[in-house]
Structures are given as C-alpha cells and as structure tokens.
Design goal:
Distance between the termini: 23 Å
CATH class: Alpha Beta
Largest sheet: 8 strands, mixed
Strand content: 15-25%
Number of helices: 14
Number of strands: 10
Number of domains: 1
Mean pLDDT: 95
Strand order of the largest sheet: 3-2-1-4-7-6-8-5
Oligomer: single chain
Length: 320
Amino acid sequence: MLDAEYVVPFRGTADSDLADLAGYLGGLVDIVDVTVVDGSDPVLVEDHRRLLDRRVRVIEPTPRPGRNGKVRGVVTGAESARHERIVLADDDVRYDERMLRRVVSMLDDADLVRPQNHFVPQPWHARWDTARSLLNRAVGSDWPGTFAVRRAALLTTGGYDGDVLFENLELVRTLRAAGGHECVAPDVFVARRPPTVSHFLGQRIRQAYDSFAQPTRFAAELALLPLIAWAARRPVRLVVLAAVAVSVAEVGRRRSAGARVFPATASLWAPAWLVERAVCVWLALILRLRGGVRYSEGRLVRAATPSRTLHRRFGGPIPR
C-alpha cells in the first residue's frame, strides 16, 4: 500500500453513471487509501456508498465559504486525510499504478505536483479539446484534473478561495504565495475519460472565462477574432494561420515525450480550437459584464485571485 490518500471531490446527479468510476476505485483501493468527498444530495450519497467498494471511504463536504463546491470537496478531503501525501483527482481521472506511484514519490521534493492528462478514448470532441492541451504545452504548461499535494502545505494556507471559477489555478497560486514549491511534470501522463458531447459543448464558454485570471493570455485571445477576420479577406492568409496553429500544437505534442499518448491527428484540430476560443472569449467577456458565469450554486465573477494579492496575504516558507 502506498503511504498516500487518493481524494475524489464529487457531485453526482440522478442520471450519473458511476459504474466506470466504481470499478476504477475498486481496483485502486488495493494500493492506496481512497476517499470520496460526495457533495451530492443526501439520498444519492447513500446510493453511492452502496455502489462503491466498501473499502472506499465516502464522506460529505464540511461547510465552507464559497460557491465552488469542488473547493469544499478538496479542502474537506485534505482535512480528513489519513496520510500526508494526497492525490487529488476529478472523477474522470484514471491513474495506472505506475503513474500513481510516480506522482506520490515526487512529493518528496515538492509541495504540489502537476501531471499531464490525456483523453482515453479519443472521440472527435476529445481530440478537439486535446488541441488546447497541445497549444498549452507548446507555450507553457497544461492544466490537468489532478494534482498531488502535501497535506501540511494545503492546510497551512487554510485551504484556498472557494469563490473562483478556475479553482486549479487558485490552488497553485495560493501554495506558491505561501512559499510552496510546485513541480510541473509534463511527462507524467495520466488518463482521463472524455466528457459527453453535451457536457463538452456546455464547457466552451466557461473554459474561455478562465482566461480572465491570466490577463496577457486573455488579451491575446481577444485579438484572435479580429485576426481571423483580417485573414479571411484572403484565403491564403487563413491557410498560413492554420499551418502555424498546427505547427505550434505539434511542438506541444512532441514536447516531453507527448507523442507517446497524443495522436498525431490531435494537432490538426488546433485551428478549430482557436476559432472556438476566438468566439467564446468574447462571449465570456459579455458574461463578465452581466455579473459572471453561471455555476452550480449561483454565479462566479472571478476566475482566480491575482498572484500579487495572494502574496500580500501569505508570506514565508511552508513548513516541511
């Protein structure tokens, strides 16, 4: 058994299909302690307990300020964890034993580890969204649905803000501001189940809204639509722009051995993703002006807290 805790913040609905998750956690519990922080309706929580392996601990989130239920689930899971090393994972994440052991071992030298997700299987909309990951990898790093974190580091900060949309960035910025060390691991590949097509379509504007947390990126994305409109006057310009997008995505695909898990065809979806973002970022701006993006528990205005604000709030190294 790993000396670690696997924590899944979760909120299901009456039509949620938990068979795949239950089977996955049933196998995982043989090598690591598993906790599901279930924020579903109480009746559903009892159904989930019966469906999951009896060795999987199911708890309900403790009350905490903020409308982002995932943050409550993460902090509750950390507070109740039985181990210092914690792997936080969305319900669609699927570790194999080798990668799980690897991210846990990396916490020996870091307070937070950020691996790389990849979709398994790869229907058309997963390849479309994979283009986003490839572009992120080419110019920086991608944002997965899983982290490994030291419990003491997270609890030293008192958790992180639950009134933001881009909760992963908020977690990382908070730990950094408190002096924590982040290890970005673009070569640690962790599988992730693709969403349904309807869920994928429903996430387009919300993902664009995350860019408010990164002003330089947000400005660049706002410039995409005028650039595409200019290029559309001459088809050759569109061809050149598309070729550049595919080339940049291919750089991200090959970086840190990414070609092992990302299919070559994923790079070809980069132009489509850029057109999507060019439109959706403007729709996100309209939502911001109207009071924020709709979330399960209301509206969220802020994507994340600026780093300078968090640095003023926290200071000094995290104890090890």
